[in-house]
Structures are given as structure tokens and as C-alpha cells.
Amino acid sequence: MDPMQGLSLGQFAEMFRKLQQNHSEEYYSFHLGELAPGLVGPLITSALASWSPMASPNLYIDIFMQWKDILEKPQQRGTLEGNSMGIQPYDSLLWHTWVPVLRTCVSVWNIRDCEPVINLLEIWKPLLPQWILDNILDQLIMPRISTEVNNWNPLTDTVPIHYWIHPWIPLLNTRLNENVFPIIQEKLGAALTNWHPSDRSAKLMLKPWKDALPEGSFAAFLLVHIVPKLQLCMQSLAINPHQQHLDAWNWVMDWKDMLSVLNLTSILDKYFFPRWLQTLAMWLNHNPDYNQVTEWYSGWKRMLSDELLVQPSIKDNFHKALEMMNRAVTTGQQPGAKEFVSYLTNIETNAPPPPPPPRVETMVEAVRAATQIPQGFKDLLAKRCEERGILFVPVLNKYYEAKQVYRLGSNGVQVYFDRNVVFYSQNNCSWLPVSLNRLLDMA
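RE: above sequence
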């Protein structure tokens, strides 16, 4: 009768510990630890027969921790399985008992329900030799993931792929980079063939991959599949100072958190600013209202982030616009135009404000200028002040360039009108052009 028959796992564990303690030299000299897989393996296999690893991942972990402590000693590098480097008895025990159960479990596992398997591997990872973990990942997990990714269709699948791929990144990082992510990028690129920037679903689909793909890979993907379509979209933007529709602009700028500053700068420099400057040039040739021109300039500038505004090419384009406006007002005769543009230029260049415009030298010129003031503009301001309860009265015996000066509100604001331009001075400072809405806000 076999004296070992009928012993429990606990009894075997106690026996091996006593051999190590009481007969240490013989135990290690004769590699007695190599007997363990054959002796306790059948008992462990029997215990694991009814185990459902995903449902109860912590079950039996104490048994393997116990045998890892007993068998995994530096002195007992075994020669099982014909491994020239030697294989630990503990490794052999795992390979013949635990791995077959996991193999069966993974073969019927729903790939898209990744959390149970990841949780199981994370729990058991401290007990798994690296070569066994690598074998599980390479031979059991990766083939099933690759098959599922090959069958995935980004246009018809309702569950985004990052839901069931990204959780694997800590365990499969390099493997995914080399074998899975290229397939995903190819499929995403194909799905974007007929995409238009007005469809925001593409950004929602791609955003989770910004930090998941290898460095530079995501940027390269955008350059191939997204940037050309954004370029065409920006090129289609109709620039109309009198009725500006910003849909195309907003569709492009919606990608500012995905594109690099340099990529976005390139789009603006090549596909927006040349036409923007052309529009400005045409506008300046038709004696425009320079209040509107400067507001238009400032409005576009406010639509760009600080990161974009400091880019040399963008700064250069805005500088060209200022130069065009300054050249235009030097040849024009519109009252107040030079002051508007000069004021804007000084703000842009952080220069001190310009001196007040020269006074009209003769009474004849003053009278002629005064007769050209459109009464409707002053009446409009008076009506707005009345609606808001703001004081608006002429200042007795006070004129500027033969134009009546008015007191506005109670904050020391005074105004006068020159054609369709209103100038203001606050607390006896220089006279500056101002828009009607801003003037009302200051009152």
C-alpha cells in the first residue's frame, strides 16, 4: 500500500516543511522538491475541477501561496520538463494544475467583458512566474483579442472599442502597440473616408485614443485622416464682414484640444488668413466704417487662444492687417478713421496712446463739419440712455472741434459726435472712438 495515499494537501505541506527543516542537506541535494508536482498535483487538480475562476477569483489562492513558499527556494532549481535552465517545481505545479483551468475559462470568455479576466490575472499575478504569465497573454489572451478586433466594425458596432481594449493596456501595452492598435487605426481611418467635420461623432470616437496610442502615432493618424478634411472645411468658410456665418470655423476649432498648436496654426495660415486679408483689402477699398473694421479685426482676434496668438505666422498676419488699415486711413477723408486705427494699433503694439487729434483751425471748417453730423445717431444714443435711466445732457458752453460735448451718466464720461463716429473722454482724458454698446456700459 502506498504510504502517501490518503494524505491531504495540508499533510503534504507539513511533510515537505519538515524535510526542509530536519533534512535540509539531503532535501536540496536530491532535489526532493521535484516530487511535489507529482504528489500534490492530482489533489489540486481535483480541487480545481469545480472552480469558476471568474466568479471566484480569490478561491484557492491560499493553497498556491503555501506551495510557492515551500517550493520556490533558490537552492532548488529543478530540471523538470527538460528545461536547460531548470524549472521550479512550483512552476511545474502551476502549469499542470492551474493553467489548464484558466485555458478552459478563457476559451469560452466573452472578449468584450474584459474586467473579470483582467481582475483574475491581477489577483494571481504575484503568484505567476513571468514565463507563465507571458504564455497566458501570448497564447490565450492576445489571439482572442486580435480575432475580435479583426471582426470589429467602427461604423456598425454600438459599443466603442476602447471600452474593452483600454483596460488591457497595463497588462498588454507593448503587445497591443505592435499587434492590435495598427489594426484599430486602419479601421478607424477607413471609417473616416466620407466624414465631414460637421459630424462631431468622429471626435468622440477618437478622443479616447489620444493618450492610448504610442507617442506620435495619434498625431500621425490625425495628419492623415483628420487634418486634410479640416483644411477643406476652413477653405470653404465664407468670410463676410456684414453677415458672418461661423459654422465651418467652429467645426475646425472644435479640434483645438486634439491637434497640436503647430497643426492648427498651419491650417489657419494657409486656409484662413490669405482670404481674410483679401476680404479686408476689398473692404478698405470701399470707404468702410472704421469702427466696424476695427471691431471686426478685434473680434476675429478674440476667437483665437493665447497659444495661437503667440505663433509667429499668426502674429504676422494680424500685423499685415494693421498695416493695411493704417495705409488706408492715410489716404482717406473719413473723420475719426485715423483715430480708430491709430488707437487700435497702439493697443496692439503696447505703445502709449496717441495725442488728441488737432483742433479744427477755422470756424468755417467747424460749421461745415457740424452740419454733416447725422442727427439720428445722437437721437439713438439719447433714446438708449432714456431706456436705461442714464443721464445724457449737453454740457453748457463746451465744444470740441466746434462740436457740442455731452455729459453721459455719472462716471465723468463726456462725448461728442463726428459723422457716424462717437468719441468719448473720461475724467478729462484724451478723446477716443468708442462703440455705442461699450459707451453705454461705461456710463
